Amino acid sequence: MVSVKTKPELIQAINELMTVVGDRLGNDGDGDAERDFMAARCPQRLHAKVRTLPTSAMHLLAEIAEGPVSLVGLAARSGRLKGTVSKHVQRLVEAGLVERRPVPGNRKEIELGLTADGEVVADVHRQLHDEMDRGARDFLLRYTGAELQVLVKVLRDLAGAHRDGVRLVPPAEP
Asked: Is 0.85 surpassed by the pTM of this model?
């Protein structure tokens, strides 16, 4: 027999499931599968770096891999504050993955570029995200187009929502 839930019961179930999903998609405490994936694909000399650098630094490394960029340009490209970007870039420089170099013909500006090791780590990081994307795609292929349209609407509304104190407020209707 199919159980028909009331709207309040469905909302309660969704709230509970959002907590479970958030926990499931986070680090499970039994190790870090993403770091393990990267370390398995990097030379031994880079294992400590891929295991200890913050995730934000890894994502900035991926942004730098898109092409040489200034610190200000990297902050704009990544949507992060310049001070935060500067701190992570310094870690990447100290790890030997990024180098600062002068812009030809401009004595003031410095651009950021990847070192040879930085290229290796950035490539492995791209492989990681490709694998994660394939996994998500394969998982979602189980659902009908109509089910996926509802999911897109809900997620889009959640992404556009804001908080008013502790309350989640939906985005304004278009």
From this structure: no
